[in-house]
Specification:
23% of the residues lie in helices and 35% in strands. It has eight helices and 21 strands.
């Protein structure tokens, strides 16, 4: 969608709200589900018009996770014990379905967690944040973990990686903003979600549209304070448990206008359990350092550098993997080729097992590798939830592993 078309769509939504919806949503909502479908659609269109206007972008931002003394200090960017704050640098590039998402962290984060797991003899460990690079054309996907020297090839029919940490979502809206305000309100129209109320509220001197949404009519799971003058971006958000406990609260403190009357969030803060009255609160912050929404990224910019010795695998089978023998530059067109190379390695492993290798005996040797070995990405669990990755290595790869 061009900026011109997005701007026209946004203006039409504003006109509709001013003439029809706003007098209605300004009234108190007496019964759950009482907002008219026209109201819900108007606000959903407002959110989506701005969000979908960014059909391509190149964005760099810093993600920080740590502790703060209070909500006020968190909003000021003041973290306790600065040396313990986990920092990630992100390069996020989009052109339609093509996405490159590169998160870089201090290697010590992974190394220290790995050393502790080795000391304890653990097969699994977690880290607060780990370097990752993800590349997709909307169908084929490549997930590469530099700390593990391991890459997964994910075919179109299989679920793949998702973006949870971005300036728009602030790690509060689920994978790929599935629970963002626009997507949830649109889901209310189809019956996927339930809109409990739409109202207006003054927040920090701004007139906001407040939407409360749940999976059913029994409980509210999300609450958004949307600014209709700035692309219907949220300036606040809250996530609730089924029992009504506020689990997470988000603040978008810096919204900036881009070309075409589009609005992009440049800073956001998320706080876990803000009502807990704890001495320290868990905080996450995003600050955008650079943004280009006017120049389309070239096709060749979407690539990942995979170093020699990386284990590349296809999770469809534990035998579909190989080790790279040289550094490789992997672009979007190369991902299906890597998948084929994984499949081509299967006969090697089948023959190896047929020569007398005892799978049970090899299974007994499945340990965390701490030497010169490569591991199947089929044994790599990259689960980002609350910012943590859980890794597990299922199969030790020996020096006899095929190279491709």
């Amino acid at each position: 969608m061009t900026a011109c078309h997005a701007n026209m769509r946004w203006l039409l939504v504003l006109a509709f709200l001013a003439s029809v919806a706003m007098p209605v949503i300004a009234m108190p909502v007496e019964q759950p589900g009482s907002p008219d479908a026209r109201q819900v659609k108007a606000v959903a269109e407002g959110c989506l018009a701005n969000r979908e206007a960014f059909a391509f972008l190149t964005c760099k931002f810093t993600f920080r996770r740590g502790k703060a003394q209070s909500i006020e200090s968190a909003l000021r960017g003041e973290f306790l014990q600065p040396d313990s704050v986990v920092v990630g640098k992100v390069r996020w590039m989009v052109d339609g379905d093509r996405v490159l998402y590169e998160l870089t962290t201090d290697p010590k984060i992974f190394q220290e967690a790995e050393a502790q797991a080795r000391k304890e003899g653990a097969m699994r460990f977690s880290t607060p944040l780990t370097s990752e690079t993800n590349l997709t054309d909307g169908r084929w996907k490549l997930a590469y973990g530099s700390s593990m020297r391991s890459a997964n090839i994910i075919r179109p029919e299989r679920p793949g990686w998702d973006i949870n940490i971005s300036p728009f979502s602030m790690n509060m809206m689920g994978p790929n903003e599935a629970f963002g305000p626009g997507n949830m309100l649109r889901g209310c129209l189809s019956g996927k979600f339930f809109c409990h109320s739409l109202s207006t509220e003054q927040v920090d001197g701004l007139s906001t549209v407040v939407a409360t949404i749940g999976e059913t009519n029994e409980s509210v799971r999300k609450k958004y304070w949307l600014d209709p003058e700035r692309g219907f971006l949220p300036i606040r958000a809250a996530s609730f448990s089924a029992s009504g406990e506020e689990l997470r609260r988000g603040y978008w403190t810096d919204l900036r206008k881009s070309s075409g009357a589009r609005w992009f969030p440049w800073r956001a803060v998320a706080i876990s359990k803000p009502e807990s009255h704890a001495a320290e609160i868990a905080v996450e912050e995003i600050r955008v350092s650079s943004l280009d929404v006017d120049k389309r990224p070239p096709h060749e910019a979407f690539h990942v550098m995979i170093p020699k010795g990386t284990s590349v695998s296809y999770p469809g089978t534990s035998l579909a993997f190989f080790g790279t023998k040289t550094d490789e530059r992997v672009g979007l067109d190369d991902i299906p080729k890597l998948h084929q190379r994984c499949l081509d390695s299967i006969p090697f492993w089948e023959a190896r097992n047929a020569r007398g290798r005892d799978p049970a005996a090899e299974g007994a040797n499945r340990r965390w590798p701490f030497g010169i070995i490569t591991a199947s990405a089929a044994g790599l669990f990259l689960i980002i939830g609350g910012g943590a990755w859980y890794y597990r290595r299922r199969t030790v790869r020996h020096a006899a592993a095929p190279t491709g």
